[in-house]
Every structure is written in structure tokens, then in C-alpha cells.
Amino acid sequence: MAEFQHFGVPTKAKQPDETYLEGAQVWITDPEKNPYRIEFLRFEAGSPLPKAVQKNAHAAYRVDNLEAALEGETVIIPPFDATPTLRVAFIRQGEAVIELMQRK
Q1: Boundaries of domain holding 90
Q2: How far apart are the C-alpha atoms of 92 and 20, rounded to whole Å?
Q3: pLDDT at residue 2, rounded to an integer
Q4: Domain tally, the chain
Q5: Residue 8: how many CA atoms within 13 Å on its side-chain side?
């Protein structure tokens, strides 16, 4: 079962309280601090993340089993540890970009 977590929106504008993710070369906001659960992402030039993630908004869902949720999907960012307690991957369904998250 997938549970909605946030809506990610790429932006070029600096946002209040951004956090920098060095490996991804992106500044992000905390969607839990936004009343509509929006996460803003501001990418630096040269970010290694796929253009599909940099240019498109994404919906993020928490799943119970990340590996099972990825079966048969078009994976654009394979699973990685986003935090010590969160494992994440990105997929595409048609033109839609989806982030799948599993608590560890």
C-alpha cells in the first residue's frame, strides 16, 4: 500500500530553511513544514540527478517494501539511503515522476 507523503516542486528561487544535500547538489525544504506538504527543490548546475527529476514535479509515497514496489517499474534513481532512517527511489510512470520511500 502506498501512502501520500509530499509533492516535490523544482524551483529556481531560494526558499526559507533549505537544507543542502551535497551528493545530489540540491537544496530542499521540509514538506512537513508546509501546510500542503510541498517540498521545494533547487538544483545546482551540474547536479547528478536525472533531468526528469530536476525538471518535473513529483509525488512521493511511503511504501512498506521498497524493493517490491519497484518490481516492473521504470526506475530512474535506484534505491539509496536518503537519511539514516529512510530509503528512497524514483520511478517514472509515463510522464509522471514518483518518489517511493520506505522507513528503515
Answers
A1: 2-103
A2: 25
A3: 94
A4: 1
A5: 24
